[in-house]
Design goal:
alpha/beta; ABC transporter transmembrane region fold; six-stranded mixed sheet; four-stranded antiparallel sheet; binds adenosine-5'-triphosphate; ABC-type oligopeptide transporter activity
């Protein structure tokens, strides 16, 4: 409708010589946007006032500035009359809601929803490494995008030519109308066609480049994460790391594509169209130069509000997803405690909040689009009024006015997209910086770092010599204190003791998940820090813990995880040793049975036996059993224990156990307390001592009789 009205006005202005000077006064000086913005910033970020009050105060300042302006005109007053109350109420509500939403999100989980970590430095040389393989496609995309933008600058001028031809024909009524129009119209059509082709070309190339860069970054980041040592995963949440792989790389990819497509196009078009505007009419250009920045500034301000609202809404959606994720991931616990209703309420509460935020966002966008449409149409109107005056004084042709209108619309669109682009670029750079930061992290215990593999076959002797250790995440808390222990070749050594005494920590040091703060762990007389870590973990040490984690693939693949190149026969032999072959073959799909996510489709005892088979398939010299049977019922424990007894023959074994009944046959038993060995000997020797070990035995027997 507004376009129809404008075209009517355009026709009136170009056909009649009316004077519209009074309507051409500039209004940009009255809005005092810079003052408004400064006020908004100081109130929004520093003030202790209610955000809504702050907004009203800012608005009244603006109103006062408008009222006291000496050059008030009827147009600005009219605008203020129409827009003032509406904008005031809608914007104040929007402002309050943004502030409230932010407070909500901050209050619910402090420091978790809104990331406050300082943004690391963006590493351009790392980006270059990913862009280099796509350089040719990227250069082609840039050239095509640049070409499309240059052609876009030509369009207003050619449209003007076309209008001039029509106007001349109307004035002179000579020649054939179709012949007159055909030439410029065909040229214009050709230009549209070429521009369409260039646009298609650069978008295809750019999405290819973007996708490939993102895919390479994902692979590289995943490799970098897997390279890190266990201490890194103690300190970083899995969700955060997964977010780097997904959301951050997605954000970076979007920004990357946007900068090259929209950024390049918008800047080229803005500069080119401004030159065209100036060539067509310096006077009209002067008017545009005054009004446009004000509108773009206001647009950027509202846009930043909306982006903030959008970010908060996204974070709230992520929070709701987190609640659902946790409930579904732990569905057995939820059901066991009949907490379905509570989880539903929690989720519904988070979803309602996100719904409210998204509604606010939708409202904000609607207001923004309504206002910006109106403002742009007002500019068209003003240009037609002013252009009509120039036409009446023969300073401008109707075609030139048309060119000017189209070119100025292109400039407005380009400036608007540059302002949006700016925020996107900032977000993209910070996402990229975080991704590159993780990529360049070097593990303190590198998996492959030139460590050696001994030529001789191992005896399997292990010595913990004078070990002191604190976890990197808790440096002040010494878990092991000058700890000494020898695991003789082919013997079974058990560690027992109170909970939290440091038993599992000893196993972690042998696996070299961590390095001791002081002291050495020796394997066959060699410091394990000098040995090849992949060899040590992959071939020398087999590890079975209390809660075996299986992957969501087949039983065959899960056992083969212990030795990637193992033949089917090796896998089956390991399964037999682990007492697992019989139950596996009782399944309809046998070794191809899928075990479900984390092995949920198997019983605890079955999972444990597959884990034993997985450890045995690599035929390790050293076996570490960290409470391998403590989660099982009596019958499962019997079958698993039988498998373990067979598995431990001919190997050096370290058993960490709670249930003392399972380690009575060990060659040597150590009792740990507070990071030290306080008693050591065989079962009978320790019993005869009557110390901590016999205390523990007595307590467990008493508990068993209850
Ligand atoms: N990843 C870790 N980061 C920081 N501290 C840890 C970590 N793992 C364990 N600890 C701490 O180290 C101490 C020893 O833990 P460890 O797991 O070795 O004890 P444990 O004797 O095996 O206990 P339990 O018998 O209960 O399994 C505990 O105080 C524990 O809180």
């Amino acid at each position: 409708m507004s376009q129809l009205l404008c075209s009517r006005l355009y026709l009136t202005a170009t056909s009649r010589s009316l004077s519209f000077n009074s309507l051409c006064n500039k209004t940009g000086d009255k809005w005092k946007l810079s003052r408004w913005y400064t006020c908004y910033k100081s109130h929004a970020h520093g003030s202790t006032q209610q955000p809504g009050n702050a907004f009203h105060r800012i608005w009244s300042l603006t109103q006062r500035a408008v009222r006291h302006s000496p050059s008030r005109t009827s147009k600005s007053a009219g605008l203020r009359l129409i827009l003032g109350p509406a904008v005031l109420s809608v914007s104040a509500r929007l402002f309050c809601r943004v502030a409230r939403c932010e407070a909500d999100v901050n209050n619910n989980t402090p420091g978790e929803v809104i990331a406050t970590d300082p943004v690391p430095e963006f590493k351009w040389h790392m980006l270059w490494e990913f862009v280099k393989p796509q350089l040719f496609a990227l250069i082609c995309a840039v050239v095509l995008a640049f070409g499309a933008a240059i052609l876009n600058i030509q369009i207003p001028l050619m449209l003007g030519d076309l209008v001039n031809v029509v106007a001349r024909y109307l004035r002179e009524h000579s020649g054939n109308y179709v012949n007159e129009v055909k030439g410029p119209a065909m040229k214009l059509l050709g230009l549209y066609g070429i521009q369409g082709l260039l646009t298609t070309g650069y978008i295809i190339l750019l999405s290819r480049v973007g996708e490939r860069v993102a895919a390479d970054m994902r692979k590289s980041l995943f490799a970098a994460l897997l390279r890190q040592d266990v201490a890194f995963f103690d300190a970083n949440k899995t969700g955060q790391l997964v977010n780097r792989l997904t959301a951050d790389i997605q954000e970076f990819k979007s920004s990357f594509k946007l900068v090259i497509s929209q950024g390049l196009r918008s800047i080229t078009q803005t500069v080119g169209c401004f030159v065209s505007l100036y060539v067509i009419s310096p006077k009209l250009t002067g008017l545009t130069v005054v009004v446009l920045p004000c509108l773009v500034g206001a647009g950027a301000l509202i846009g930043s509000f909306l982006r903030k609202l959008s970010r908060l809404a996204q974070e709230q959606v992520a929070k709701a997803t987190g609640v659902a994720d946790e409930a579904l991931g732990n569905v057995r616990t939820v059901k066991a405690f009949a907490m379905e209703e509570r989880e539903l309420q929690l989720y519904a509460c988070e979803v309602d909040k996100s719904c409210e935020m998204n509604e606010n966002l939708g409202g904000g966008i609607a207001v923004f689009q309504g206002l910006s449409n109106m403002a742009l149409n007002c500019i068209v109107l003003g240009t037609i009024f002013a252009g009509g005056t120039l036409i009446s004084s023969n300073e401008l042709s109707p075609g030139d006015l048309m060119s000017f209108l189209v070119a100025s619309q292109t400039v407005q669109r380009s400036l608007a997209s540059i302002s949006i682009l700016f925020g996107q670029v900032v977000r993209g750079i910070s996402s990229g910086a975080r991704v590159f930061e993780y990529m360049s992290l070097q593990p303190t215990i590198p998996l492959s770092g030139g460590g050696r593999i001994p030529y001789h076959s191992l005896t399997g002797r292990v010595d913990f010599m004078n070990i002191s250790f604190s976890y990197p995440t808790r440096p002040g808390h010494e878990v092991l204190k000058r700890f000494n222990l020898t695991l003789p070749p082919c013997k079974t050594v058990a560690i027992v003791g109170e909970s939290g005494g440091g038993k599992s920590t000893v196993a972690s040091l042998l696996e070299r998940f961590y390095d001791p703060t002081s002291g050495v762990v020796m394997l066959d007389g060699l410091d394990i820090r000098t040995l090849d870590l992949a060899w040590l973990r992959g071939q020398v040490i087999g590890f079975i813990n209390q809660e075996p984690v299986l992957f969501g693939s087949s039983i065959m693949e899960n056992i083969r995880f212990g030795k990637p190149g193992a033949t089917d026969a090796e896998v089956i032999s390991a399964a037999k040793q682990a007492n697992a072959h019989r139950f596996i073959t009782s399944f309809p799909d046998g070794y191809n049975t899928m075990v479900g996510e984390r092995g949920v489709m198997l019983s605890g005892g079955q999972k444990q036996r597959i884990a034993i088979a997985r450890a045995l398939v690599k035929n390790p010299s050293i076996l570490v059993l960290d409470e391998a049977t403590s989660a099982l019922d009596a019958e499962s424990e019997r079958v698993v224990q039988e498998a373990l007894d067979r598995a431990t023959r001919g190997r050096t074994v370290l058993i960490i156990a709670h249930r003392l009944s399972t380690i009575q046959g060990a060659d040597f038993i150590c009792v740990m307390s507070n990071g030290r060995i306080v008693e050591a000997g065989t079962h009978l020797e320790l019993l005869s001592k009557g110390g901590l070990y016999s205390d523990l035995i007595r307590r467990q027997r008493a508990e068993g009789q209850k």
